[in-house]
Write a structure and sequence with these properties.
Chain A is built from 23 helices and 17 strands. Chain A has about 675 residues and is an alpha+beta fold. Classes of the chains: A alpha+beta (about 675), B alpha/beta (about 325).
Chain lengths: ~675, ~325
């Protein structure tokens, strides 16, 4: 689609845009404006509801039809009806006309509608300017490198059309226009950087940006049922990246806690209602040696839960740790965010309320009779000792032929009975689920925790990448007045926990290629790409108030206030502008001076052959005289003609042409008659 | 060789060449003067033709109007011509009992003001002001003149009886003064042999319309003038102001006239930018009537002001 649009565009702006000087746009400009609106909205398609896209396409096809047949635009009454229909569509799709998404949609549809009443160049300018606005609004939805590159390219194309609009005589070729536009873009780049660095940032998320309900990411969900991890395991996309400020813990200790699930209905684990108390159940140690400090850059999840190691004790003020020691945020994470935390690996818990204890012992009634019987027997065998019982359950997984696999057999109504005694094939959710079930069967409070386990260090930049395929589920058991983590998967597949998912003996065809490949080239490329992506996240997307302040502090501006920032911005902006224009001016004068300088040399050379340029003689007259009076070989004749022609173009024309200048200088230096 | 940047404005220059060729069918052997007259039209200036009666001044004006597709009007200036005869007059309409404006011959796109120096200064200045302002104010009401608006005025040599010479300040309002002169032998022979000029003029087809002419004027105005050309023009202006040869130098309007005329001439030549030669070519037509030669300067009668200027100014 964008290829098709670009082709139309290049075809269109290759031709002259304005047919005559009465300021009437011709077919080509109308086509290119139509293409422009689509080029700018293209990345937004995926986030636009279908009725709007249909309307957009209908209007565009209608307009293209009008342009193609050279028909008259519809009358005022028809336009009024179309506009009302457009407004109604937007209103019914979004429920209101104002706000970010409906607002952008309104601008897009109105720019298409503007084409229906485009009579003169001024209307064309309006469409181009709104296209500039629309292209910038793409950043509301995504801020990836690729989108940024796309936006830059579209900006250059839009500028090309602007140049074409102003080039009323059509004297410039498409190539020249495009080159000019690219050059302007390059000149503007330093100003863009200055603005980016110095424009005052507001602490907190930008404009309360929130992800739209339509978009969906691969990632953890707030419930867990058999098979819910399969989709995650086959995805190599990044869940989050971690930069450790202290020693990196061992792989087997990297349990990134996400969501705690305490309610089970026989098939699915859910979150329980929020506990009444909001005081986190954490009792941290005074000994700071075991604290882990790290910064997580989290990809959008659309959830209100953040990830952390056990247990977060120090974090940024806009986040909270709840009773279940989950790190939470007020708004769902719709953009890449970065946060720093400290976790205490040896922290303990304070107490368990009766209500919590009860909630974590609940089981669905009348299900899994065999499992309940088995649990009771095993508990009696363990002499009613909780710790002994846990060990025995883990031992049960170990000695019986349980398989760690991504293709578990389907389970019936009594899922636990089927799994523990018949199929014995399962993935982490099966083990965690059955383990918690066995614990609750004998009244030990326990719960399922889902999150991620492990991670890969990127050797290039020394940070850790955690992918969706590292998603994991495990259990937490209340024992000895502490929530103790127990991972039954480790009993079945110790390699999963110690070496990671790619070495866990799973069917490698089910895992992302990136994780199981032996090609070092592929791995290194992936690391390189990820380093780049990480730097982008750190330095562009997450360049917030804090980073700005730090950067300024490093530059020697301590405690810069907003007014300082604006002053600094204006100064830097002016300096950058001056440098750019000085550079341009210098380049221009050097070329102009050079041209004249070498023309003088050329005239001196000719003087040696007996022909002297009169001071009042212009290049045309002098050329005619030289060709007339000197006896020249055809080659020399060509050279002389070329030099005169080039001199006229360079000295009296209005373009800087480095290629021609170099050739001109070369010809003069090597001139022999 | 990079040809993309130097490509010429082919279609427009072809159009103008056709026009020149058509006009030269009527006015024989005066190609350069025809080109200059067209330059004047393209540069949106007005033109003064000074010569003996009967050398084809009127015919030239008539032909240009016909070929360029302009509405043509001729005003014969006489000593009893009044401003109202040129501009128009308000007459009382009895039926509607109000004044009605009857536009004069000046409300036309192309005007030939024949023998302008035979009218009184009052009438002359009425015309010249209208030329400058592109509008006419009669009885307190301002009326726009049609566009394009082009005046060719003819003038008899000053020493003839019954003439009021145009003052210098008025001369400055003409972009160019063109001398036609007698035709050469060959051209004269052809003229004597050939058909009646009037029939030839009627047989000519216009090469462009009003909109196209407007476009040509715009294109010419947007031609590039390099700093080198500006330097050259300024040097010319400085020379005319410093030398003893002239009573006074060229005015800033004269400088602008030079640039505009050079642009239009370069445009007719099919160039994308102005060269020093273009300035030199239009200089006699643009400068000679603006520069009164100092009587005691010792300047030879045969050398014109423009020639003196060109030979004293260097091109860098």
């Amino acid at each position: 689609m964008p290829n098709c649009i670009s082709a139309t565009l290049i075809y269109a702006i290759n031709k002259n845009i304005v047919s005559s000087l009465d300021n009437k746009p011709n077919k080509n400009i109308l086509y290119s404006l139509l293409a422009c609106v689509h080029l700018t909205t293209f990345p937004l398609y995926s986030a636009t509801p279908i009725p709007i896209i249909l309307l957009l396409l209908t209007l565009s096809i209608w307009q293209a039809f009008i342009i193609y047949n050279g028909k008259k635009n519809p009358g005022k009454l028809v336009l009024l009806i179309v506009i009302s229909a457009t407004l109604l569509t937007i209103f019914y799709t979004y429920g209101f006309l104002f706000g970010r998404q409906p607002g952008i949609t309104l601008v897009i549809l109105m720019s298409i509608l503007k084409l229906f009443e485009t009579k003169n160049l001024r209307d064309c300018y309006i469409i181009i300017y709104s296209a500039f606005f629309i292209i910038a609004s793409n950043f509301f939805h995504s801020q990836t490198v690729w989108l940024t590159i796309y936006v830059f390219i579209v900006v250059v194309i839009l500028t090309t059309i602007l140049i074409a609009l102003s080039d009323k005589l059509g004297t410039l070729s498409f190539k020249t226009r495009f080159k000019m536009s690219t050059r302007y873009f390059v000149y503007a780049a330093p100003l863009m950087v200055v603005l980016f660095i110095l424009f005052p940032r507001i602490p907190g998320p930008l404009w309360g940006l929130q992800k739209d309900v339509f978009s969906s990411q691969t990632g953890l969900s707030e419930e867990m049922s058999p098979g819910s991890f399969n989709r995650l395991i086959s995805s190599s996309s990044i869940a989050f990246r971690v930069k450790f400020d202290s020693v990196i813990p061992e792989h087997s200790q990297l349990y990134w806690r996400g969501i705690v699930l305490s309610l089970y209905n026989g098939t699915t684990w859910h979150r329980a209602d929020a506990p009444k108390t909001t005081v986190p159940n954490i009792n941290f140690t005074e000994d700071h040696t075991d604290f882990i400090k790290y910064t997580i850059t989290l990809e959008p999840t659309n959830l209100k839960w953040l990830l952390s190691l056990e247990f977060p004790i120090d974090h940024e003020s806009q986040y909270k740790v709840n009773r279940e020691a989950m790190l939470t945020t007020k708004k769902a994470v719709g953009n890449v965010i970065s946060y720093s935390i400290t976790s205490d690996t040896r922290s303990t818990n304070i107490a368990l309320f009766e209500q919590e204890s009860y909630k974590n012992r609940l089981l669905p009634v009348n299900l899994n009779p065999e499992t309940l019987n088995f649990a009771k027997k095993l508990f009696i065998q363990s002499k009613l000792n909780d710790q002994q019982y846990i060990n025995n359950v883990l031992q049960y997984y170990r000695v019986n032929e349980f398989y760690y696999t991504l293709d578990p057999d389907l389970l019936g109504n009594n899922a636990m009975d089927d799994f523990l005694f018949k199929t014995r094939r399962g993935f982490c959710e099966h083990y965690a689920s059955s383990f918690v079930y066995l614990m609750r069967a004998v009244g030990i409070p326990s719960r399922v925790v889902i999150g991620y386990q492990g991670g890969t260090i990127n050797p290039l930049d020394d940070y850790m990448i955690v992918r969706q395929s590292d998603a994991h589920a495990w259990a937490e058991v209340w024992i000895n007045d502490v929530w103790q983590r127990v991972d039954p998967t480790a009993a079945v597949s110790p390699d999963r926990i110690e070496k990671g998912i790619s070495n866990s003996g799973l069917d490698i065809n089910k895992l992302p290629l990136l994780l199981v490949t032996n090609s070092t080239l592929l791995k290194n490329t992936a690391f390189l790409y990820d380093s780049f992506q990480n730097s982008w996240n750190q330095w562009v997307i997450n360049f917030d108030h804090k980073k700005q302040t730090n950067l300024l502090k490093n530059l020697g501006f301590k405690d810069a206030t907003y007014s300082d920032l604006i002053l600094l911005l204006i100064i830097s902006f002016s300096i950058t502008g001056l440098i750019v224009s000085w550079f341009l001016l210098k380049q221009y004068t050097i070329e102009k001076d050079n041209t004249q300088h070498y023309y003088n040399i050329f005239c001196k050379k000719l003087k040696r052959y007996g022909i002297h340029r009169n001071f009042y003689e212009g290049p045309n007259d002098f050329e005619a005289r030289v060709l007339n009076e000197l006896l020249l070989t055809p080659q020399a004749r060509n050279d002389v003609t070329f030099v005169f022609k080039a001199y006229r173009t360079l000295h009296y024309g209005n373009q800087i042409n480095t290629k021609l200048t170099n050739l001109y200088i070369k010809k003069i230096k090597s001139l022999k008659l | 060789m990079d040809t993309t940047n130097i490509h010429k404005l082919d279609s427009t220059s072809a159009l103008l060449n056709t026009a020149i060729q058509q006009i030269s069918q009527v006015i024989l052997g005066k190609n350069q003067q025809i080109k200059l007259a067209l330059t004047c039209l393209i540069a949106k200036g007005h033109c003064l033709i000074e010569d003996q009666p009967g050398v084809g001044k009127t015919t030239l004006a008539h032909t240009i109007a016909q070929v360029m597709g302009l509405e043509f009007h001729r005003i014969q200036f006489t000593s009893d011509l009044l401003p109202a005869d040129v501009l128009g007059v308000s007459v009382f309409n009895r039926e509607q009992s109000k004044f009605e404006f009857h536009p004069g011959p000046i409300f036309s796109q192309f005007i030939l003001a024949d023998e302008i120096n035979r009218a009184t200064p009052k009438t002359q200045s009425a015309l010249l002001e209208a030329m400058e302002e592109h509008q006419v104010t009669v009885e307190g009401e301002t009326r726009e003149l049609p566009s394009p608006f082009f005046v060719i005025a003819t003038q008899n040599p000053l020493h003839q009886i019954g003439t009021y010479p145009l003052p210098e300040s008025q001369l400055d309002r003409f972009l160019m003064r063109i001398d036609l002169g007698y035709p050469d032998e060959e051209a004269e022979r052809q003229l004597l042999e050939g058909d009646d000029r009037r029939t030839i003029i009627k047989s000519l087809n216009p090469v462009c319309d009003k909109a196209q002419l407007f476009q040509l004027q715009q294109q010419a105005a947007s031609l590039h003038v390099s700093p080198a050309i500006l330097d050259y023009v300024q040097e010319i202006l400085n020379y005319t102001r410093q030398t003893n040869a002239f009573e006074f130098g060229l005015s800033p309007r004269g400088g602008l006239a030079m640039i505009n005329a050079a642009k239009a001439y370069a445009f007719i030549e099919g160039e994308k930018y102005v060269l020093p030669e273009h300035v030199q070519t239009i200089l006699p037509a643009v400068a000679n009537h603006r520069l009164p030669v100092h009587l005691e300067s010792g300047l030879k009668q045969t050398t014109s002001a423009a020639e003196l200027i060109i030979e004293s100014t260097s091109i860098s």
